[in-house]
């Protein structure tokens, strides 16, 4: 209860206080910060996916700025020969203002990544965005089958059916999905609420992906999902280049290392940018126990 109370209060505290918590989970505010963090991870044998923080823009001029920022990110990351790819949130590119403008913006980003034989992941957002984002993925995959992927969320009750319905897109090129639990607050009609139900459906979705030759990014920090994932990989005798594990920057480094030590591919999601405050407070709401880390940091600094 105490942790939840602190977690609810911190979003209203000065940013310099929240930064004491955030700096562990954010690469920094600039491209140079993200490059440094990514090179450090690469040196440890870890791949990355980079994300410029921000979403829910108010006008299309911001969407254009965000598209241009991603083009700069791709050029900088490729110049530095980083072993990584790119993650984009459609609302950051105008999805809720003009879906067609959003599509054109993201298409430009995917085309730039494709010039380097690289890859862009379309992040899945809250339930009102799901159909729009699946349709965007369908359109982009027709043109860039090897350069674009999607995120699916196990807590949404529709996800298994979505996986079934998207099988028609295979056409000789493996589908590539990041499977995560989901972080948005959704009504009970559309999302599972109980921990056990979400985990059960996570494994059900992963089982479907592996047996249908879909490349999964197994994105979880839940140790109770890691062993079942290992079991499915063994069950279907999946080669190590046909899946990967994924984690957030700065989260559960010991668990991450244990997966690496077993020889599995690991990719870390590297967020950066000036809009770190909203991202950080969401992370805090997901895991209120992290609030104690901030309290300790405050006292350790006097």
Task: Give a description of the structure.
The chain is built from twelve helices and eight strands. An eight-stranded parallel beta barrel has the order 1-2-3-4-5-6-7-8, surrounded by six helices. α2 packs across α12, α4 runs parallel beside α5 and α8 runs parallel beside α9. It starts with a helix and ends with a helix. The C terminus is likely disordered.
Write the layout of secondary structure elements.
Blueprint: H1 2-9, H2 15-22, H3 31-43, E1 47-52, H4 60-79, E2 84-88, H5 99-115, E3 120-122, H6 130-143, E4 148-153, H7 159-165, E5 176-180, H8 195-211, E6 215-219, H9 223-235, E7 244-248, H10 253-261, E8 266-272, H11 276-286, H12 291-300
Parallel strand pairs: 1-2, 1-8, 2-3, 3-4, 4-5, 5-6, 6-7, 7-8
Helix pairs in contact: 2-11, 2-12, 4-5, 8-9
Instruction: Bin the strand percentage.
Output: 5-15%
Q: What's the count of strands? A: 8
Calculate Rg over CA atoms.
Answer: 19 Å
Structural class: alpha/beta
End-to-end C-alpha gap: 25 Å
H/E topology pattern: HHHEHEHEHEHEHEHEHEHH
Number of helices: 12
Arrangement of strands in the largest sheet: 1-2-3-4-5-6-7-8
Q: Helix coverage percent of residues?
A: 40-55%
Biggest beta-sheet profile: 8 strands, parallel, barrel
> What is the residue-mean pLDDT, rounded to a whole number?
90
Q: What form results from the Cα inertia axes?
A: globular
Q: Which residues sit in consecutive blocks of at least 5 with pLDDT less than 50?
A: 293-302
């Amino acid at each position: 209860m105490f942790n939840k109370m602190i977690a609810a209060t911190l979003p209203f505290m000065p940013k310099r206080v929240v930064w004491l918590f955030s700096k562990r989970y954010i690469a920094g505010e600039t491209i140079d910060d993200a490059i440094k963090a990514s090179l450090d991870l690469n040196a440890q044998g870890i791949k990355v996916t980079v994300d410029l923080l921000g979403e829910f823009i108010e006008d299309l001029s911001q969407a254009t700025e965000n598209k241009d920022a991603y083009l700069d990110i791709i050029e900088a990351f490729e110049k530095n020969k980083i072993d990584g790819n790119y993650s984009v949130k459609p609302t950051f590119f105008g999805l809720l203002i003009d879906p067609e403008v959003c599509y054109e913006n993201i298409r430009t980003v995917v085309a730039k990544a494709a010039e380097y034989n690289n890859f862009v992941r379309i992040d899945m957002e809250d339930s009102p965005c799901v159909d729009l984002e699946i349709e965007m993925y369908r359109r982009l995959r027709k043109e860039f089958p090897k350069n674009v992927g999607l995120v699916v969320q196990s807590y949404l009750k529709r996800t298994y059916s979505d996986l079934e319905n998207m099988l028609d897109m295979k056409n000789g090129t493996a589908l590539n999905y990041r499977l995560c639990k989901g972080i948005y607050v959704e009504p009970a009609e559309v999302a599972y609420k109980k921990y056990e139900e979400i985990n059960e459906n996570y494994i059900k979705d992963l089982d479907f992906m592996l047996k249908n030759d879909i490349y999964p990014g197994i994105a979880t920090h839940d140790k109770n999902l890691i062993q079942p994932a290992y079991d499915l990989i063994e069950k279907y005798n999946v080669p190590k280049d046909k899946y990967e594990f994924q984690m957030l920057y700065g989260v559960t480094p010991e668990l991450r290392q244990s997966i690496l030590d077993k020889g599995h591919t690991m990719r870390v999601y590297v967020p950066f940018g000036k809009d770190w405050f909203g991202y950080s407070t969401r992370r805090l709401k997901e895991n209120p126990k992290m609030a104690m880390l901030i309290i300790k940091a405050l006292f350790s600094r006097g």
